[in-house]
């Protein structure tokens, strides 16, 4: 007999832009499987990530707090010991907790995000972790695994360097023979297929799980993160110009091998061909990952497990692909980064299925929502769950505690790199300044430490192309008051916590892995 408490799947599509999923109105058919899942679930049209990149956003989803409250804002940050994570709360409530993670910032660095998991498997390239093999001492395995990793790492680095410099090898990389190698070994984005298969196996076969014990499964997928090396069939469909045009191939090769280029603002706008290349390759990655997510969900459905499983599908942040002269997800707080997909399947129908929610919600409230769904939330936490939130906020009656906020604190390693290489960009794009935003109704106010405020009607102008701050100064003032109270609270929290450094962050292999993904300066 199944447990009265549902299983929980927390699936994070790392770096997934909301406007590149078909169910959110994208004209390209990038996500038929996620679309089908969303049709029978609840889709949130305006979900806001509290932070613009991996660590602060995951920490907020795991604690229910904004980045300035949990203080996980840098690559080396550590979760304050007094904060209990979602996994710890669920573990205390009787759940078997397991993670299948492809992002090293979540699964490799010992920064507190792994707390509360009985099992935490990493699929990050050469740092993949596996359960111990029975009968073989772990010390024996560890000794020879590290030697093998170092030898293989040196070999793979040389191969990757060759692919980054040769037109012929780039063309070869698009062939069916080479694509699996790029995906698993050379792309350094983990192994989507393996992580999803392992998660499905646990949920269906339940080895090591006690009878009637519910399972909490956290999954992080990195398919849409740079660099872009999707299978050829998806390139043919979404980026055919890359297969035909040598200039497009040259640009893509340089882009994929230029980690600095994933972080720094652009000196000018992308050319049409460059923009088309990035858009097409990103869409191809979205579509390739969608197929694998669909296979995962289908396994659960055929097994009958989905009938008693609470499923959250979301993103930690989006991605700039040249908009506003920005690339990546380091510096801005525009919609390209902080408005994310959020789809929830609730088997109990506490959150009504087959519906679309129009109100603005924060993904930090997923912490409260999951705990509420499984009966482990306090009354105060239940009030913050998405089930109990309403969209009645107006500019005439703003409750700062019910507003939705986001924060973008510049990653220090990115700022250091830009200051060394292109210091003029720091002042030009305010790279060294903290950004905060507040949403009330259809409007969003962005404030930067030293720059003028920006006001947008995000319903009529989702691309944030028309700044309304000078047209509606009263609206700016009203939203500013709410944001000022939030900012003051943020400063008080920052003064309370010391910036401890994550253990293992300085390990040479860990740092090399983070450099591969652009999270550390050279």
TrEMBL record:
Pfam families per UniProt: Sulfatase (PF00884)
Alphabetized InterPro entries for the sequence: Alkaline_phosphatase_core_sf, GAG_Ulvan_Degrading_Sulfatases, Sulfatase_N
Domain Sulfatase N-terminal: residue ranges: 6-375
UniProt xrefs under PANTHER family: SULFATASE (PTHR43751), SULFATASE N-TERMINAL DOMAIN-CONTAINING PROTEIN (PTHR43751:SF3)
Name by which UniProt lists this protein: Sulfatase
């Amino acid at each position: 007999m199944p447990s009265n408490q549902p299983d929980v799947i927390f699936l994070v599509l790392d770096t997934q832009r909301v406007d590149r999923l078909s169910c959110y109105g994208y004209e390209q058919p990038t996500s038929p499987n996620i679309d089908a899942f969303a049709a029978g679930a609840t889709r949130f049209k305006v979900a806001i990530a509290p932070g613009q990149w991996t660590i602060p956003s995951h920490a907020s989803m795991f604690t229910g707090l904004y980045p300035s409250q949990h203080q996980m804002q840098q690559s080396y940050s550590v979760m304050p010991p007094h904060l209990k994570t979602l996994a710890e709360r669920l573990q205390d409530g009787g759940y078997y907790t397991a993670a299948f993670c492809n992002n090293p910032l979540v699964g490799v660095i010992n920064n507190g995000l792994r707390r509360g998991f009985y099992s935490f498997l990493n699929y990050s390239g050469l740092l993949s972790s596996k359960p111990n093999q029975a009968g073989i001492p772990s010390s024996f395995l560890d000794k020879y695994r590290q030697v093998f990793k170092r030898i293989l790492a040196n070999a793979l680095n040389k191969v990757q360097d060759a692919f980054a410099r040769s037109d012929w090898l780039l063309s070869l990389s698009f062939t069916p023979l080479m694509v699996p190698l790029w995906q698993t070994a050379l792309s350094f984005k983990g192994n989507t297929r393996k992580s999803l298969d392992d998660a499905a196996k646990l949920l269906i076969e339940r080895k090591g799980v006690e009878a009637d014990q519910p399972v909490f499964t956290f999954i992080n997928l990195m398919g849409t993160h740079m660099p872009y090396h999707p299978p050829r069939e998806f390139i043919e469909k979404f980026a055919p110009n890359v297969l035909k045009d040598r200039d497009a191939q040259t640009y893509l090769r340089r882009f994929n091998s230029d980690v600095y280029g994933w972080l720094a603002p652009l000196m000018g706008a992308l050319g049409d061909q460059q923009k088309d290349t990035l858009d097409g390759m990103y869409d191809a990655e979205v579509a390739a990952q969608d197929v694998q997510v669909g296979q995962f969900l289908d396994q659960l459905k055929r097994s009958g497990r989905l009938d008693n499983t609470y499923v959250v599908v979301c993103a930690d942040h989006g991605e700039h692909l040249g908009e506003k002269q920005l690339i990546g997800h380091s510096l801005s707080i525009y919609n390209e980064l902080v408005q994310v997909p959020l789809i929830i399947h609730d088997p109990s129908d506490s959150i009504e299925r087959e519906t679309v929610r129009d109100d603005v919600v924060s993904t930090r409230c997923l912490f409260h929502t999951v705990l509420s769904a499984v009966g482990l939330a306090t009354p105060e936490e239940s009030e913050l769950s998405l089930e109990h939130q309403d969209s009645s906020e107006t500019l005439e009656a703003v409750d700062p505690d019910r507003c939705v906020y986001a924060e973008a604190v510049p990653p220090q390693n990115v700022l250091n790199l830009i200051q060394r290489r292109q210091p003029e960009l720091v002042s030009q794009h305010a790279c060294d300044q903290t950004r905060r935003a507040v949403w009330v109704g259809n409007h969003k106010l962005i404030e930067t430490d030293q720059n003028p405020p920006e006001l947008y009607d995000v319903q009529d102008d989702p691309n944030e192309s028309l700044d309304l701050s000078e047209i509606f100064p009263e609206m700016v003032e009203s939203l500013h008051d709410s944001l000022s109270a939030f900012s003051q609270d943020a400063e008080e929290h920052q003064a309370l916590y010391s910036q401890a450094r994550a253990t293992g962050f300085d390990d040479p292999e860990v740092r090399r892995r983070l450099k591969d993904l652009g999270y550390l300066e050279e």
